[in-house]
């Protein structure tokens, strides 16, 4: 289940998608991109190159200026039920307990209490936070809040998970730990991920495809395929090939960043 | 000595000291002026002899304060909801709210008496007008200050406007609402007292504390006047404590303002 399948229909398909806000400058220029179910796509690039905008287009939070974008064959607006977004901030509601935070989107969708509770317990188990179910967000650490945020997204059983720098605010140790946890969850739940990050190591470790973007206007500069089989573990990080790929992506990223300055 | 004991002992000592100084000042005054500053003992005595009258007056003032305060809470909430709909609504209404806030409603007390009738109706309307503004302003501020990230999250879930209001905007506005409520709670008993002072009536219920204060000062019953003031203080204390307790119940689990109350 975890290996991206080669022959099925694209799950997310960009065809010559461009985006500008109002009369502003072009933010995304002619993006063409197709993902297969099970892809883990990382987006990396200089600040302001349109990574968040690309995710927000898939999420239907903003719409394309030209070109076509389909999500599972539908418009992004129509495909809302298949998507979940994990923002850079944990975006938990501070007045609700961890359990209530996870159950809220389920109850807004009209899912009955018994099923809500079962789902909540299942996803909290995945991020190993069941003991914190009745805690309030302010009683959690930054990493724990982020795990709750991920659990809440997983509770919606999305086909596509959009993650915008979810671990950007965390320290290196916690981040590596959560990366492994995320991949472990992925072993059991096949979703397609779009993952924005500023960390090359993180992108290489998590993805099977890394897209390096350039800015002004935002464009996909290079795609690098990461061939390591899933499941990946701590061992993957220690391998020679991993380090070579990290070095390669870093080099490309640096050239992109010097070009745009 | 433990901190808890000190917390009780020190304020008690301050109180005793103030009472002693008070008594000393009374004694220091020349005999013909002493009636202006009754001793704490004399005020206590006035409490005993006028207990029934003061209790009845306090009850009437409480009624006016509660009626005005509660209706201000309810109506201000719905106005705040309307104001939070769009900034256009806000710019069209805010100037007039400001004017209402600046208007010394007491000046209109005589007119109010003719419109609404003296006593409880006028007193609660005056209390309402005094409590209204801080409630509207704070609640509106809360309803429009929702965290943008959370609004985005709800947009992602494709929630209806009503769902967003119930599950996001209203709970997020609670801390602001309670700020307004705390201000209104300190204003309400004073508003009712002043209202009663200017638009009170002995007809029917016998009037409130403000009305009683007028009677006592016209009769030169100064210890009883001080007792009336003390009763108002107690009333204000009860009002404020009740709102603080409510606020604690609603917010202490999650809001920063109660961060260090439950280590
Ligand atoms: N709602 C908006 N209205 C106008 N311009 C916007 C809007 N959102 C983003 N932009 C512009 O689009 C460009 C891309 O922004 P975006 O947030 O997608 O960048 P990013 O790659 O995510 O950057 P970062 O790494 O700093 O998060 C920026 O120049 C930004 O100013
Ligand atoms: Mg961004």
Main sheet specs of chain B:
none
| Molecules bound to protein | adenosine-5'-triphosphate, magnesium ion
Provide the low-confidence segments of chain A as ranges: none
- Which fold does the CATH topology of chain B refer to? MetI-like fold
Give me the secondary-structure category of chain B.
Answer: mainly alpha
Give the number of helices of chain B.
10
Shape summary of chain A? globular
Q: What is the level 1 CATH name of chain B?
A: Mainly Alpha
| CATH-assigned homologous superfamily of chain B | MetI-like
| Elements of chain A, N to C (H/E) | EEEHEEHHHEHEHEEHH
Low-confidence stretches of chain B at least 5 residues in length (pLDDT < 50)?
A: none
The biggest sheet of chain A amounts to: 6 strands, mixed
Strand content of chain A: 15-25%
Number of strands of chain A: 9
The strand order across the widest sheet of chain A is 5-6-7-3-8-9
Structural class of chain A: alpha/beta
- CATH superfamily annotation of the domain at 12-91 and 159-195 and 205-217 and 226-260 in chain A: P-loop containing nucleotide triphosphate hydrolases
Describe the structure in your own words.
The complex is a heterodimer of chains A (261) and B (263). With 261 residues, chain A is an alpha/beta fold. Chain A has a domain at 12-91 and 159-195 and 205-217 and 226-260: Rossmann fold. Helices cover 38% and strands 22% of the residues of chain A. Chain A is built from eight helices and nine strands. In chain A, strands 5-6-7-3-8-9 form a six-stranded mixed beta sheet, sandwiched between helices. Chain A is globular, with a radius of gyration of 18 Å. The N and C termini of chain A lie far apart (42 Å). The mean pLDDT of chain A is 93. Chain B is globular, with a radius of gyration of 23 Å. The mean pLDDT of chain B is 91. Chain B has ten helices and no strands. Chain B starts with a helix and ends in a 12-residue tail after the last helix. Chain B has helices spanning 3-28, 40-49, 51-85, 87-102, 109-116, 120-144, 148-156, 161-199, 209-218, 222-251. The relative contact order of chain B is 0.13. Classes of the chains: A alpha/beta (261), B mainly alpha (263). Chain A binds chain B through residues 59, 61, 80, 83-85, 87, 89, 91, 93-96, 104-105, 108-109, 136-138, and chain B through 147, 149-150, 152-153, 155-159, 163, 167-168, 171-172, 174, 253-256, 259. The structure holds adenosine-5'-triphosphate and magnesium ion. Adenosine-5'-triphosphate is lined by residues 21, 24, 27, 47-53 of chain A. Adenosine-5'-triphosphate binds at residues 21, 24, 27, 47-53 of chain A.
